[in-house]
Write a structure and sequence with these properties.
The complex is a heterodimer of chains A (about 500) and B (about 230).
Chain A (H helix, E strand, L loop, with lengths): L7 E5 L3 H14 L4 E6 L15 H8 L4 H7 L3 E3 L1 E5 L9 E5 L12 H6 L5 H5 L2 H6 L19 E3 L2 H15 L2 E5 L2 E6 L5 E6 L4 E2 L3 E4 L6 H6 L4 E3 L8 E7 L12 E6 L2 E7 L4 E7 L6 H12 L9 E4 L3 E3 L3 E2 L2 E3 L5 E2 L6 H16 L7 H28 L7 H6 L7 H10 L18 H10 L12 H24 L3 H11 L5
Parallel strand pairs in A: 1-2, 1-11, 2-7, 4-14, 11-20
Antiparallel strand pairs in A: 3-6, 4-5, 8-9, 9-10, 12-18, 13-16, 13-17, 14-15, 15-16, 18-21, 19-20
Chain B lengths: L3 E3 L9 E2 L13 E3 L5 H4 L5 E5 L6 E6 L10 E2 L2 E2 L6 H4 L3 E3 L6 E4 L5 E2 L4 E2 L9 H29 L3 E3 L2 E4 L5 E4 L2 E4 L1 H5 L3 H9 L3 H10 L3 H12 L1
Antiparallel strand pairs in B: 1-9, 2-10, 2-11, 3-5, 4-5, 4-15, 6-7, 8-9, 12-15, 13-14
Classes of the chains: A alpha+beta (about 500), B alpha+beta (about 230).
Amino acid sequence: MTDNKINSILIVGGGSAGWLTAGIIASRHGQNVKINLLESSSVPTIGVGEGTWPTMKTTLQAMGISETEFFRCCDVSFKQGAKFCQWVTGEKDDFYYHPLTLPKDFLDINLAPYWLENSSKSFSNSVSFQEAICEQNLAPKTLLMPEYVAAANYAYHLDAGKLTEFLSAHCQQKLNVNHIIGTVDEVLVSGQGDISGVKTDDGQVYHADLYIDCTGMSSLLLGQALKTEFVDKSDVLFIDRAIATQVPYESEDSPILPYTLSTAQAAGWIWDIGLTSRRGTGHVYSSRHMSDEQALNIFSKYLGKPLKETDIKDIKIPCGHRKEFWKNNCVAVGMAAGFLEPLEASALVLVELSANYIRDQLPENKAVMPIIAKRFNQLNTHRWNSIVDFLKLHYVLSKRTDSQFWLDNRDPATIPDSLQELLQLWQYQSPYTHDFFYKEEVFPAASYQYVLYGMGFMTEAGLSLSAMQKTASARRMNENKAIIKKALHSLPDNRSLLAKIKEYGMKAI
Amino acid sequence: MSDYQLLSKNQHRDIKINTNDQNCGFFHTRIAPALISEVNRLVADYPLFISKNSQTGEFVLVALLGFDENENLFVQNGEWLSSSVPLAFSRQPFLIDHSDGSVLIDMQSESISLTDGEALFDEAGETTAFLQNKLSLLETIYNGAQPTQDFINLLQQYNLLESVQLDITFADQSQQNFDGLYTISAEKLASLDDHKVVQMHRQNCLEVCYLIHHSLQHMPSLIARKNAKLS
C-alpha cells in the first residue's frame, strides 16, 4: 500500500498563496512528505494583498514564526478592523466600523436586540471598545504582552512583496521546503485527467502525488490544463478594476492608522492601508460605470496630488471562482481558485483556510482523494457564496443615489437569492450563531451585525426582551463603557508601539 | 526629576549625603531591579521574579516590594524592615554608566546636603571611606550587569520562563491580579537536557534558578505585610 501514499507535493507559484500554503502544509508534514515549490523567475507576483484576517496570527504561530521578526521584515502594522467612510449616505460625517473584536460576551449573549431598542451610540461603540481605540490611533496591545497576545483582536497590514521573501526564507530554512526556480512551459495531463507532471522551459519535468495550483489569475493547472469552468460573479459584484499606488507618509510622526480605511466613491471605493514604511492605496471601481480616466481623477483627488498613469499599477479583477477547486490530483489555492474584489480582505484568509484543510485532510491514501476533493469543493463553494453575499451586503445597504453604480447594486436582479433571504430574515431577527451552519465560517455572525447595524439596517423588535435579558444586556454595555475608558488610558499610540517593536521586539511569552 | 552629573572632586568636594533620612522618593517603588550576584542575599527577604521593562519589554530580574504602584512594603518611616537592601537602593544617589563605567551623582536627590551627613571627600581631597564603600557597590553593579543579562538570555534560550498569575484578595477584600511577572518553571528546569544542566551549573546559573524559585515562599509574608498596612 505504500505506493498509494502521498509522498510528494508540488506547489506551483511563488506568491503569497504559494509560500503560505507551503508553510502551512510543511509545518505539519514537512518531515514525511517531499514539498517542492516551483517559482517562476519571469512572472511577477501581483503583490497588492496587504490586509489579513486575525487568523494570520494562528497561521504564523503554527509555522513557528517569531511575530517580532515578521513585523520587522514585512513592515507590518496592526489592523484592528475596517473603517467605512461615505458608504451609507456619502456625506462627510458618514462612517462606521467593522472591528475585529467580537461584541462583548458575544458567545453568551446577543446584544443586538437590546441595542436596537435603546440605540443612542453607534452599534460598534455600544458593544465593543475597538472603535474608540481606533479613533485615537491606539495599538491593540502593549509591549508587555507576549507575541500574538493582545488586549483587542487584531490582524495585519503588511508589504506583500516582503511577505513572500520572508515566508520563502522561513519555509526553506526551517520547514524543509525545496525551492525550484523555473518558468512553467507545459502542464502534462494523463488520459485519466490527472496532472502527470509540470515541464519548465529548461526542459525539466517535475512530478508529484498532489499538485497545488498557486499560479494566480492565470490558473495554469486547474483552469488552463484541467479546463475547470470559471463561475463569473460580476453580475453581483461590479468591481472589475483596481489602480494602486504607494504613498509616503507626510512626516515621520504622521499617524499610522490601526485599521483599513475604506472610502466609498461614485463607482467603487478607495483602500488606504498604513504600513510602518509607507501607505498602500488603491481605487477599485466598476469599468461598466466609470471610465479609467474618471477613476484616475478621483484617485488623484483623494491623494491630493495629480497621478500619471506611470505612477500606478493597473489590475483587472476577474470577479468569480472556479466551479471546482480540487479536481483529481490538483487543488487550487489563492487567485488560481478565484478572486473577488478586495473589500473585507477575503483573499489571504481563503488561502489560509484552504491550506489548513489540505494540511488537516491530506489523504492518507490516494484512493480517498476523490472523497476529500468532493468535500473540499462543497465547503469552498459555500465559502465563496457566503463571501459574495457578505461583500454584496455592503453595497445593498447603501443609501447612496449619486450614481448608477449604487442604484444598480440595489437592483434585486443583482442580489443573490441567498442574500435576499437573509435580509428578509434579518428584518425580524438579528443575525446570530443560528444563521450559520459551518464551523469555520469566513465571516462570523458578528461581522454581519457590525455591517448591518453600522449601515443603519433596522431589525424590527419581534418578541420583546425579558427583564432578565434587558438587565444582562445593559450590564454588558455598561461594562463596555468602563473598558473603553480603561483602554484609552492604557494602550499606547500605534506608531510608537510599532517603533518599539522594531527597536526592542516583543517577547515570545 | 533627576539631574545626574559626572562625579568630580572639584565640583562635588563639599557635598554630604544625609544617610538618616532614608525616606527618599526613590524608595517608593513596587519593584527593584536585582543582579544575580545579590540573589543569594536578597532571597532571605524578597520574592524574586523576572519582569518586563515597561519601556522596552525586555526581561529584567527584580525583587517584588509591594502591590500598588510606588508601594514599598519594606520601608517604614524611612527604615528598612528587611535584613538586606537591594543594591539598586544602597547605591543611591549614585549611578554607574554601563557604557564606560563613569560614576554619576544625582544632584536632585533629597539626600544631598551641604551640612548634614557623610562627606564624599576629606579635607585633603581624598575619597572618604563612605564614598569608597559606595564606589565598591557601584563596581559590583557594573560587573554584575552582564552576567545578569546573560542569565536572563539563557532562561529565554532554554525556554525556562513561565508567566505567574497572581490573584490575591487582601484583608479588605480588595483584589489584585497582575500579570507581567515571570518565574522559572520547575518543571521545565527538571526536564532540561543533561548538557544544558551542566552548562548552567558551570555558569553559576543553576543555583540562582533554584534560589529564585525558592523566593516565591516570601509571597505569603509580603501579603501579610500588605494586610497589616491595610488594617
